[in-house]
Design a protein that fits this description.
By secondary structure, the protein is an alpha/beta fold. The chain has two domains: 198 residues, D-Maltodextrin-Binding Protein, domain 2 (3-Layer(aba) Sandwich), CATH 3.40.190.10; 102 residues, Periplasmic binding protein-like II (D-Maltodextrin-Binding Protein, domain 2, 3-Layer(aba) Sandwich), CATH 3.40.190. It is 40% helix and 17% strand. The chain contains twelve helices and 14 strands. α3 links the parallel β2 and β3. α3 packs antiparallel against α11 and α4 runs parallel beside α5. The chain is globular, with a radius of gyration of 19 Å. It starts with a strand and ends in a 7-residue tail after the last helix.
Length: 312
């Protein structure tokens, strides 16, 4: 069997019409070949469409997730089509419109996917000891910056990832409110950079006074030589957040949901190692089961901030 991979630029208007780039096409059908026929009885529409949000450069994510998807394909016994979507919102809408069967969401993305697409969490990433892993949001400044605390951000520029990001948007906004900045969007100059790597680069290139950098992006950037921690200083760090869940669309057959969960939990650490490196899960262990309750703090965060789909 061969995993089919496409980088999907999913437009919101196209998704609303149900004709986005995530849809079936001739290339997908032909590439699956006989494997699609063999798995049609066990898989939705003869294949499984697996969505990934672009929390890192898609060109880097693609080969890592191809390894995971290939192993998942073997466990399921049917083709897996890997789709790296355009942004957080596009992934939620893709599942809502029936264009994705399984998807990895950021924690806040899962909140909206749960509400709009009835996404159900299956598993997430664990360390070598089998413990569910977490990460933290952070705000960083140059080491010689006059900014020492979160309240000092008033009137300054702050690079954020993009709307809908847990650590790159919601958590920093809540941190500012907690620190007495009642209207963060009014009192701080938000610069949505388009992703975690871009927010970090905005800081290192001197385009902003501060930037959100979560522990996952920090680890990746240090490993790639893109961030010298000695030249910067963290002025805020969040509490630990449970790492991204891999979810399944709620309207799928219960038997298939269980089959997918079993296949994911039976993946070997080697199957998820490359993905784990991007998530700062190194070395990884087998995946572990998660529930909606695992992400309750993020549901509470969204409610506290009054976030709706329009905010992302």
């Amino acid at each position: 069997m061969r995993v089919i991979t496409r980088i999907a630029a999913i437009g919101l208007a196209a998704l609303a019409l149900g004709i986005a780039g995530c849809g079936d096409d001739e290339e997908s059908t032909t590439a699956a070949g006989g494997a699609q026929d063999a798995g049609s009885a066990a898989c939705p529409n003869g294949k499984v469409r697996f969505g990934i949000e672009p929390y890192e450069d898609p060109a880097k994510l693609k080969p890592a997730y191809e390894v995971l998807a290939k192993a998942l394909e073997t466990g399921l016994g049917c083709p897996v089509e890997l789709l790296i979507v355009e942004d957080y919102t596009a992934e939620v809408l893709a599942m809502e419109n029936g264009k994705l069967d399984i998807a990895q969401f950021g924690p806040l993305g899962f909140v909206f996917a749960s509400e709009r697409a009835k996404a159900e969490p299956l598993v997430s990433f664990a360390d070598a000891a089998g413990k569910l892993t977490t990460y933290k949001g952070g705000i960083w400044v140059p080491k010689d910056s006059a900014l020492k605390t979160v309240p000092d951000l008033r009137g300054k520029s702050l690079a954020l990832s993009e709307p809908g990001s847990t650590s790159g948007d919601a958590l920093p906004r809540q941190a500012m409110i907690d620190a007495g900045i009642a209207e963060p969007k009014r009192d701080v100059k938000f610069e949505y950079a388009g992703g975690h790597p871009e927010a970090l680069l905005a800081l290192t290139k001197g385009k902003v006074d501060a930037a959100e950098i979560n522990t996952q992006q920090l680890a990746t950037a240090k490993k790639e030589g893109q961030f010298d921690e000695a030249e910067y200083r963290r002025v805020w760090e969040s509490k630990p957040i449970a790492i991204d869940p891999i979810t399944i669309r709620g309207d799928l057959d219960p038997a298939f949901k269980q089959k997918a969960k079993d296949a994911l939990m039976n993946l070997r650490p080697a199957d998820v190692q490359q993905v784990g490196a991007f998530l700062d899960v190194d070395p990884p262990g087998p995946m572990v089961a998660v529930t909606k309750q695992t992400y309750q703090p993020v549901f509470d965060l969204a409610r506290k901030l009054g976030l709706t789909e329009e905010d992302v």
